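dumping this here before i forget
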Amino acid sequence: MEQAGHTDKKTFKDNARRLLNPVVTLLGSFGVSPMLVSLFGLVFSLYGAIIVARGSLFWGGVWLIVSGLCDVLDGSLARARHQESRFGAFIDSTFDRVSEFAYFSGLIVYYITRPQGYSIFLIVLVVVVLGASFLISYARARLEGLGYECKVGMMERPERLTLLIVGLILGSRVLPVVLFILATGSVVTVIQRIRHGYIVTRAEP
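structure:
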C-alpha cells in the first residue's frame, strides 16, 4: 500500500515537472541559476507569511503557490543544466523548513491579533502542525543519515502545503478544519515514521 502511494506521488510529480518544462527551458535560456530560483521561492514564502499574519489569507495562499512552483522549478532547472549538487539539495531542504516555519508563525500571529479575538484552540493546532512538520522532516533526515530510506507517512510536505493552500484560499471558515486535518495527519505521520524506524533498525543483526 505504501509503495503504491509513493508510486502515485512520483507519477504526479513527474507530470507536474513536464508541465513546467517550457518554463524551465525559458529560465535556462536566460542563464538563471537554480539557486536564484530557490532564493526567490524563499522570499515569496516569507512575503506570503507576512501577508497571512496581517490577515490576508487568500493572497497568502496565492504566494504560497508561487513559492511552491519555485520549489519545483529549481530542482528541474538544476537537472536540466547539470548543476545538481549535495549543497543544492541541502539548501533546498533548509529553505523548505524556513518557509513552513514562516507560514505557521504567520498563522499564529493572525490568530492572536485578528479582530474577533484570539483562539487558544487554533493557536495550539498551528503549534502542533508546526512541531509535527519539523519532526517528520527530522525523522527522515535522521534515518537517512543512518543509511535507511524513510519516505513513509500520509502527510509529507507536498500534502501539507496543498492542504494549507486550500485552507488559506478558502478562508477563515474552512481554515480551522484544514488545520485540524493537518494536525491529526502530521502526528500520525510522525508515529508512522517512528514505527518505520523501529522496524528497519531492529531488522539489523
